[in-house]
Specification:
Elements (H helix, E strand, L loop, with lengths): L1 H5 L9 H63 L7 H26 L14 H35 L1
Helix pairs in contact: 3-4
C-alpha cells in the first residue's frame, strides 16, 4: 500500500495469465501453420482421389449408356418394324429438305438475322446459325418422317392380317 501514499503509479503486475496467453497464442499459431501445411499436402492427394472418383463415375455412366443402348437394340430387333421402301425414303428425305429450307427461311426473316452482304449488321458467322438450323431441322424431320412411315407401314401390315 505504499504506492497509494506516495501518489505514484501502479507497480507493473506480472501475472502468470499474460505469459500463459502468449504461449497459448503462439501454440495456436503454430498449430494453424501445421494444419495449413498438412492441408496443402492432403489437398493434392484429395484432388487426385476426387479426380479418380469423377473419372470412375464418368466411365460408369458411359457403361450404363451402352447397356441401355444394347437393351433397346435387342428390344427393337424383337419387334421388327418393316423398313421403308427406298423410293419412299428418298421422297421423304426430299420433303424433309424442302421443309427445312422453308422453316430456316422463315426463322431468318422472323428474327431479322442479316444474311446478305448488303444488309446492315451482316457478319459471315450468321451463316453458321443458318446452316446449323438447316442441319438440325433436316435430320430431325427426316427421322420423324421415316419413323412415321415405318409405323404407318407396320399398322397397315397389321390391319391386313
Amino acid at each position: 500500500m505504499r504506492w497509494r501514499r506516495s501518489g505514484g503509479s501502479l507497480p507493473a503486475r506480472t501475472s502468470g495469465n499474460e505469459g500463459r496467453r502468449a504461449r497459448i497464442g503462439s501454440v495456436l499459431a503454430e498449430g494453424v501453420q501445421v494444419v495449413a501445411g498438412g492441408g496443402a499436402l492432403f489437398s493434392a492427394s484429395a484432388a487426385l482421389a476426387l479426380g479418380k472418383v469423377a473419372l470412375a463415375a464418368l466411365l460408369a455412366l458411359v457403361g450404363f449408356g451402352i447397356c441401355v443402348r444394347l437393351a433397346r437394340h435387342r428390344r427393337a430387333v424383337a419387334c421388327t418394324v418393316p423398313a421403308v421402301a427406298p423410293g419412299r425414303a428418298v421422297a421423304l428425305s426430299v420433303a424433309a429438305a424442302v421443309l427445312a429450307v422453308l422453316e430456316s427461311a422463315l426463322l431468318v426473316e422472323a428474327t431479322g438475322l442479316p444474311v446478305r452482304h448488303d444488309q446492315p449488321g451482316f457478319e459471315p458467322s450468321n451463316w453458321a446459325w443458318v446452316l446449323g438450323a438447316l442441319a438440325v431441322l433436316f435430320w430431325g424431320q427426316r427421322a420423324l418422317l421415316l419413323r412415321w412411315a415405318r409405323h404407318r407401314g407396320a399398322a397397315a401390315a397389321g390391319a391386313t392380317r
